[in-house]
Amino acid sequence: MTTHQIVQLERTRRERRWLEKYHPLRQLFWECTLRCNLACRHCGSDCRKEAIVPDMPLEHFLAVLDDVATMTDPATVLVNTVGGEPLVRPDIIECGRAITSRGFSWGTVTNGVLLDEKMLQQMLQAGLTTIAVSLDGLEPEHNWLRGNSFDGAMRAIGLLARTPRLTWDVITCANQRNFDSLPQLKQHLIAAGVKKWRIFTIFPQGRAKLNPELFLTPEQYSQLMQFIAETRRVGDINLSYSCEGYLGEYEGVVRKHIYRCDAGTQTASVLANGDISGCMSIRAHYAQGNIYHDRFSDVWKNRFEQMRDRRWMKHDECKKCKAWDWCMGGPFHLRGDNGEMLHCNYLTLQKIE
């Protein structure tokens, strides 16, 4: 590890301590629906066309935003509508307009199938500032994972590529089916006008637990880090890896920033049933309250102890790990209901080396 990497790691460690103490809310996810027009093999929320939990009424979430505005400047908070598929809500434009009218920025994540020209223009008029579209491979690999939706996702990407002054990117979940074709997918995205690309790896939650083909082998994971690092070096597309934990030698190499889990320090979520949690990737039982019997601002100010003081995580593999000061137990979404580690990408890389 270089001196520059160590300096960056130490700076990030100090920033984390400050965030644990002051925890300024900067990103709020709203799980506005658990319904989806697709049935992806890897869905962590196990979403379906008809959900057991009904869509949260807009006015219930707006009460949360009004409460958030009492503790921080709305202009400093990005509200992301997520699902499920947010665009299945018939009032999604009204949702976006209400969010932005209160001074918050509005972003969303979509599979792109329902994003046509009319929908995009309505979203932009309602104040949309950021959007991410999921594309999980070339047509055979994408459709294997998400169903027959490749054409819809590509149509959405084409629309976004022709839209100025909108921050957007493409998200890809790397798995054994699409791993070998990632270089070809990169060229396909570049040709489609994509400037920013994020790669995630899949963890064993929701439906993903049922399909071992979704998980990369340790050798593939190491090769993925090399692919991302080389793509960033060449610079023909702005590719970065997601926040899947501390990566040792690859810190500052496969993403612009050094790893830091912001769940509970800068990032919170309101789930479809009203639960208040950290980031949307956390599917285990780490709810800190519920909007139907707790004030969000009280929960944010006075709870989230598990996510802000992580010393309780320092056991088993973490207890003897030399990277503890920089990793702090890894991302919360890779912890189970009882705090057990579900997966550690750093250990995976160490075994390969």
What can you tell me about this protein's structure?
By secondary structure, this protein is α/β, with parallel strands linked by helices. Helices cover 34% and strands 14% of the residues. It has a 10-stranded mixed β-sheet with strand order 7-6-5-4-3-2-1-8-9-10. β2, α3 and β3 form a beta-alpha-beta unit. The longest helix has 20 residues, at 3-22.
Which key phrases capture this entry?
single chain; 353 residues; alpha/beta
Strand content: 5-15%
Characterize the overall form.
Answer: globular
Question: How many beta-strand segments?
Answer: 10
Q: How does the major sheet shape up?
A: 10 strands, mixed
Order of neighbouring strands in the sheet with most strands: 7-6-5-4-3-2-1-8-9-10
Count of individual helical segments: 12
Give the end-to-end Cα distance, rounded to a whole number of Å.
Answer: 14 Å
Please describe the topology of this protein:
Blueprint: H1 3-22, E1 27-31, H2 58-68, E2 78-82, H3 92-101, E3 105-110, H4 117-125, E4 128-134, H5 139-146, H6 150-161, E5 167-174, H7 182-191, E6 196-201, H8 218-234, E7 238-241, E8 267-270, E9 275-277, E10 289-290, H9 296-302, H10 305-308, H11 324-327, H12 345-352
Parallel strand pairs: 1-2, 1-8, 2-3, 3-4, 4-5, 5-6, 6-7
Antiparallel strand pairs: 8-9, 9-10
Helix pairs in contact: 3-4, 8-12
